[in-house]
Amino acid sequence: MRLLVTGGCGFIGSAFVRLALGHGAEVVNLDKLTYAGNPANVADVADDEAYTFVHADIADAAAVAGAIAGCDAVVNFAAESHVDRSILDPADFISTDVVGTAVLLDAARTAGVRRFVQVSTDEVYGSIPTGAFRETDPISPSSPYSASKAGGDLQVLAWHRTFGLDAVITRGSNTFGPRQYPEKLIPLFVTNALDGQQLPVYGDGMQIRDWIYVDDHCSGIWTALEKGEAGEVYNVGGGNEEPNMEITRRVLELTGRDGSLIRHVADRPGHDRRYALDTAKLRGLGWEPAHSFEDALAATVAWYADRRDWWEPIKSGDYRRYYEEQYGGR
Ligand code: NAD
Ligand code: TYD
């Protein structure tokens, strides 16, 4: 099987590229290399004969048409993915997550690929006070990020219904693991704690997320690719619901720091209080997560402690300017 993987230089996409190569697939990785795209994330497979890299934007129809030729399936990870950045400037989110997805869908239809997998997020459902979202629940996104992902999902479903494109959508929960850009909660707090810097907790820190280890998220996407039914949505959740303060406590413990690093800052506008997913549908296809939250978090912290060469160059330059802008307005 030859796969077009988009966004394969990002956090989850790079783990999926490794998983796909491990399953014997050929992989064409198309990535724009935005601030979040890092060739170092795929350096270990760069010389693999089954791996090809294409530096391009998913919204560039000509480039996508070239890369998709001969591919059996597309797995679309490419996205602007950070809620706080979408609040500062939503434009790129709409260009990539909505328009880019539509360009990719059109290329897939023209090329006659056998399957299109859209990697989406639990955030499209919005917040849920109790219980867990099922795939049939309506979408109600809160942020420009989740609204743009929801827009992408709707394009995928439309291409299935209108043009008969064989497409499935996965909606993953908050993912953590090695190689996650240090703007998201866990890698930001781990790298700050390792450096003895403050951990900015938004609001009361009692917002709940359902955490999943990156390799479990990828195996869920692989299951949907292989066994999912066309036109269907599959939730991919780890079942590890934790308030942000509990994540903060664990990070401090694992890095040998204390609560004096905690800094409560102004809450994120439109902040979703709780996410939770019912994963019975994907489990019905034989998938289940293989990693315990506790062990995977400890392994993740150990990876960041060991790989300063990976994150120290990132936490300078443009990254610093982003944080000045981020906290300037709060
Ligand atoms: P990331 O920000 O780490 O990586 C995104 C990748 O996409 C980068 O390599 C970037 O260069 C590339 N990219 C961005 N715009 C592009 C464009 N226009 N054309 C081509 N490439 C482009 O993101 P991630 O955390 O790995 O997330 C991957 C996908 O999974 C996203 O679609 C995201 O919405 C979804 N998701 C993420 C999480 C999470 O917790 N991180 C949870 C559920 C779903
Ligand atoms: P994040 O990793 O940005 O993922 P998402 O917003 O997509 O769920 O944030 C996870 C949670 O952590 C969310 O409730 C916001 C909170 N958070 C903080 O309290 N401080 C931070 O510096 C960041 C980045 C997030």
Task: Write a compact overview of the structure shown.
Helix content is 41%, strand content 18%. The chain has helices spanning 11-22, 61-68, 83-88, 91-111, 144-163, 185-194, 214-227, 244-254, 280-283, 293-306, 308-311, 318-328; strands at 2-6, 26-31, 51-55, 73-76, 115-121, 167-172, 174-176, 199-202, 208-213, 233-236, 240-243, 262-265.
Give me some keywords for this one.
single chain, 330 residues, alpha/beta, Rossmann fold, seven-stranded parallel sheet, three-stranded mixed sheet, 12 helices, 18% strand, globular, binds nicotinamide-adenine-dinucleotide, binds thymidine-5'-diphosphate
SSE order, one letter for each helix or strand: EHEEHEHHEHEEHEEHEEHEHHHH
Count the helices. How many? 12
**Residue share in helix:** 40-55%
Which small molecules are bound? nicotinamide-adenine-dinucleotide, thymidine-5'-diphosphate
Task: Give structural notes.
This protein has 330 residues and is an alpha/beta fold. It has a domain at 2-175 and 211-236: NAD(P)-binding Rossmann-like Domain (Rossmann fold, 3-Layer(aba) Sandwich), CATH 3.40.50. Helix content is 41%, strand content 18%. It is built from twelve helices and twelve strands. It has helices spanning 11-22, 61-68, 83-88, 91-111, 144-163, 185-194, 214-227, 244-254, 280-283, 293-306, 308-311, 318-328; strands spanning 2-6, 26-31, 51-55, 73-76, 115-121, 167-172, 174-176, 199-202, 208-213, 233-236, 240-243, 262-265. Helix 1 (11-22) packs across helix 7 (214-227) and helix 2 (61-68) crosses helix 4 (91-111). Bound molecules: nicotinamide-adenine-dinucleotide (NAD) and thymidine-5'-diphosphate (TYD). The site of thymidine-5'-diphosphate has 13 residues, from helix 6 and strand 8.
